[in-house]
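Appendix C reproduces, verbatim, an entry submitted by the partner laboratory led by Prof. M.T., so that reviewers can inspect both the input and the predicted structure.
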Amino acid sequence: MDILNLYAGIGGNRKLWSDEHTITAVEINPKIASIYQDFFSGDTVIVGDAHQYLLDHFKEFDVIWSSPPCPTHSRLNKCFTAGNAKNPITYPDMKLYQEIILLKNFFDGKFIIENVISYYQPLIPPTEMNSHYFWTNFYFMPVNNKFDRGHYSGIDNLQEIKGFDISEYSGIDKIKTLRNCVFPETGKYLLDQAIKSFSKKQMKLL
């Protein structure tokens, strides 16, 4: 499979994917992209705007995973937004819905778009799993992983539950970087379901 991994971070969703696939990852932060490359040396890593890369290249892939920035959609964002100079009220980042609409209507492969549970009713209905929303063009049965999400844990615990040791790296917000990681088990489960959803005819054409 040719897989596109957008807003890749250090590769939480990617960690348990098979190396038999051809994977292209896009991450805008050069330091984060460099760490991803260290962990997944066989992947093609592009430092750039994932949203624009998707528009320019989506037809080149069989499976697309996208995790657009989530803070403006999150329930915590609404709780902590005071509407003052320090915490101004902002528009939700609608790139999330732009990507869903684009892929639903023009992409021939399978896609997975992941984001947090929003403080508003989603404009396009998702599937909820493990405290996240997922939009896909294939059916999957939501399952609960057995791991403590540990979102507010310290670095050591986050490294353990996410499966990444980034202790030797500097110049990044390690807590934020680890919190942004999709659970590897979730990433593997959804990719497996996406691949299984291809018809035999589609597989012969790939």
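The two ends are 8 Å apart (CA to CA). Additional entries are available on request from the coordinating office.
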